[in-house]
């Protein structure tokens, strides 16, 4: 063992030119517990955003969660349904947190913080913006700055007429090329009363899909966090 290192109770104690027990001794973790994955959960303006609180609760059991909401999604999200420790960021936060040169920029901070990005629900509008590289709000700025070697999942939700529209297929193909993983919508009676494909996958399926992906990557020796 290195003269300057002393192992005790799971810690390695580094002694900057000192003897064990001296006041300068500093602990270094030998086997630090792996930290929890950091999930950035985002909602866009589909009526399925009423389930966003539920989704945040599921992910919070397993991961550190921060949330982003578009302006339209706020019509559907009940903020009181979110876990107490989950911060919900909006476009207002993006601008109120920046005053002068040198201040941090929220979308860049969130992009750096997150290991995984999940947009559920993904609206037709935000899908189109992502496919086209547009970035005019907090969420699309995070996406525009995203590192595509990190997992990025989307769960679209829209009326079946929007889902079947030819733009959808084009946009889904574009984001697939970027490496975005699709959690497809399901067929059922939609919130508007129509029956067809376009309903967001259940939050439990979104959660298990992301978690399974993460855990299998870790098992294969890949580093996600
Ligand atoms: C009551 C209501 C429900 C809506 N539901 C959906 C929906 O399920 N999916 C969707 O893509 N757009 C839906 N829209 C339209 C979007 O909210 C609209 O396109 C909005 O601009 C999306 O903004 P965002 O992508 O920035 O969140 C709905 C609009 C209203 C008024």
TrEMBL record:
What InterPro entries does its record include? Flavin_trans-like (IPR036551), Flavoprotein (IPR003382)
All copies of the Flavoprotein domain together span: 38-209
Q: What top-tier enzyme class does this entry carry? A: lyase
GO MF terms here are:
FMN binding; phosphopantothenoylcysteine decarboxylase activity
Q: Where is this region: Disordered?
A: 1-29
EC number annotated for this UniProt entry: 4.1.1.36
UniProt key word Translocase: no
Entry superkingdom: Eukaryota
Instruction: Quote the catalytic activity from the record.
Output: N-[(R)-4-phosphopantothenoyl]-L-cysteine + H(+) = (R)-4'-phosphopantetheine + CO2
- Which cofactors does this protein require? FMN
Which portions of the chain have biased composition (kind: Low complexity)?
Answer: 15-27
Please give the biological process terms from Gene Ontology that the record holds.
coenzyme A biosynthetic process; positive regulation of response to salt stress
Alphabetically sorted, this entry's keywords are: Coenzyme A biosynthesis, Decarboxylase, Flavoprotein, FMN, Growth regulation, Lyase, Stress response
Under Gene3D superfamilies, the record lists: Flavin prenyltransferase-like
Which pathway is this protein engaged in? Cofactor biosynthesis; coenzyme A biosynthesis; CoA from (R)-pantothenate: step 3/5
- Per the record, what is one GO cellular component? plasma membrane
The UniProt family comment states: Belongs to the HFCD (homooligomeric flavin containing Cys decarboxylase) superfamily.
Name of the molecule in the record: phosphopantothenoylcysteine decarboxylase
Instruction: Provide the taxonomic classification.
Output: Eukaryota, Viridiplantae, Streptophyta, Embryophyta, Tracheophyta
């Amino acid at each position: 063992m290195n003269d300057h290192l002393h192992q005790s109770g799971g810690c390695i104690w580094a002694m900057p030119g000192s003897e064990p027990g001296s006041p300068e001794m500093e602990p270094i973790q030998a086997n630090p517990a792996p930290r929890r994955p950091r999930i950035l959960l985002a909602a866009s303006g589909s009526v399925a955003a009423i389930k966003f609180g539920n989704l945040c609760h599921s992910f919070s059991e397993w991961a550190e969660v921060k949330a982003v909401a578009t302006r339209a999604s706020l019509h559907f999200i009940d903020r009181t349904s979110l876990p107490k420790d989950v911060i919900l960021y909006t476009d207002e936060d993006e601008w109120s947190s920046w005053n002068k040169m040198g201040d941090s920029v929220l979308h860049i901070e969130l992009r750096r913080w997150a290991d995984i990005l999940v947009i559920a629900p993904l609206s037709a509008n935000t899908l189109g913006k992502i496919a086209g590289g547009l970035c005019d709000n907090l969420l699309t700025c995070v996406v525009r700055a995203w590192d595509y070697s990190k997992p990025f999942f989307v769960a679209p939700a829209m009326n079946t007429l929007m889902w079947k529209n030819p733009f959808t297929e084009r946009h889904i193909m574009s984001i697939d090329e970027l490496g975005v993983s699709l959690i497809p919508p399901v067929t059922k009676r939609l919130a508007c009363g129509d029956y067809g494909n376009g309903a967001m996958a259940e939050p439990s399926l979104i959660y298990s899909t992301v978690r399974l992906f993460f855990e299998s990557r870790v098992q294969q020796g890949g580093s996600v966090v």
